[in-house]
Amino acid sequence: xxxxxxxxxxxTPAIAETAHGMYFTDxxxxxxxxxxxxxxxxxxxxxxxxxxxAMHAQIDKLAYAHTSFFTNEPSxxxxxxxxxxxxxxxxxVYFVSGGSEAVEGALKFARQYFVEIGQPERxxxxxxRQSYHGNTLxxxxxxxxxxxxxxxxxxxxxxxxxxxxxxYRDRRADESRDQYTQRLLAELDAKxxxxxPEKVIAFVAETVVGATAGALTPTPGYFKGVxxxxxxxxxxxxxxxxxxxxxxxxxLFAIEQENVAPDLVTIAKGLGGGYQPIGAFMASxxxxxxxxxxxxxxxxxxxxxxxxVACAAALAVQKTIERDGLLAAVRENGAYFKAGLxxxxxxxxxxxxxxxxxxxxxxxxxxxxxxxxxxxxSLRLHARVKAQAMxxxxxxxxxxxxxxxxxxxxxxxxxxFIATKEDLDRIADLLAVSxxxxxxxxxxx
Length: 445
Ligand code: PLP
Hints:
Layout: E1 16-20, E2 23-26, E3 31-34, H1 37-40, H2 49-61, H3 73-85, E4 90-96, H4 99-116, E5 124-128, H5 137-142, H6 146-149, E6 159-162, H7 167-170, H8 177-195, E7 200-206, H9 222-233, E8 236-241, E9 264-267, H10 269-272, E10 279-284, H11 285-292, H12 308-323, H13 326-345, E11 351-357, E12 360-365, H14 381-391, E13 394-395, E14 397-400, E15 409-413, H15 421-444
Parallel strand pairs: 3-13, 5-6, 5-7, 7-8, 8-9
Antiparallel strand pairs: 1-2, 2-3, 4-10, 9-10, 11-12, 12-15, 14-15
The structure holds pyridoxal-5'-phosphate.
Residues 39, 98-100, 103, 132-134, 206, 210-211, 240, 242-243, 268 line the site of pyridoxal-5'-phosphate (PLP).
């Protein structure tokens, strides 16, 4: 019996023994093709020699230095790298150890900014249903995923809630894409009015929704409209790119493809590619200058911020992506992968939608394709697909509650950027077989 409080207390997962490139091997010698990078983390695959070398070198030189005493070279260099690559104005970085910490930091930074510029009445965040922003209390509060929030709800701050941009389900038959987008923006405006726009700190949204709904891309003009609304009322826009950022959608920041710049952006998983725990939020110079000329101190901090080995690993990951032209590979292979999934799954009566951007794709499963009826949630189809895929040697990231936190099933795919076309073909083949087997077993009861 393991002494670890595992994610499920009912079972202990297999022991991962080694991982190289696209494959894991467990203690029993079984191999698994990694089609999801864990949770969209392992962008360079496993045991990349350049990243390992950078980490070894950094450990030998300086393994740790508390940031109240020192800064360190890898963190300074990584901040410079990110500042150069980020959308205009976003050039200051705060390094943490993961996505939830990045979101918490961004929320607090936004609040402190308004206190410092003399708008302390701004106390409310607005965010979307079916979003996930992390599991710490602040991040969980802004997140809109019902089953994750339910039992902790009494501990969470109140957050204004609006609809996600979920065209497959929510665009009405009599609506154009543009009309749907305008309807969503009108809803956001109405929410700001209901709260009082002068009380709102920020609108928080994942640029491309990941875990909760399976690679939901924004409609054209949605984030441009969000930016305009926020600007109208002096509200900040926080883009959560913990999952969709760092090249996963084919550009380093997913929001680049929307042609707008947020005031704050959070990044994590693909930043360090799993080689070390690292996340960050980036803020506009304007906000940093306001705090510098006010109290001069962001009232925050964790023991491991700016960790030199984590920053060295992330720097090596990012430089490797740049050197090897992997963003272009994500765009090209992403399109190839999507076409492969469409080909193998497009005719299935149980696949409602194949969506996403770059190497960040989602497959939504339905009982009836014509009217988009989801499977009975008691079947836990998503869990069956995951288990069946593992049996077939494939790692994917399925989730239930796609539609409203209870109904719906999807499979999230986020293979490493080093995946070859042959790898992607194999993933699509194994996934199609696994989905078929899981649905057959679920229907048999
Ligand atoms: N934000 C988004 C969009 C995420 O997808 C996640 C994790 O899945 C988080 C925040 C939380 O990140 P972490 O699990 O590293 O704390």
